[in-house]
Amino acid sequence: TEKRAIFGHSMGGHGALTLALRHPGRFRSVSAFAPICAPTRCPWGEKAFTGYLGADRSTWSAHDATELMSGHRSAPWPAGILIDQGLDDKFLAEQLHPHLFEAACQAAGQPLTLRRHAGYDHGYYFVQTFMDEHLRHLRLWIVVQDDPRMALDVRGLVLLQRRELLRARPPVVESRAEFPMVDSRDARHERLRQLRREQGGFQ
Question: Is 122 a catalytic residue?
Answer without folding.
Answer: yes
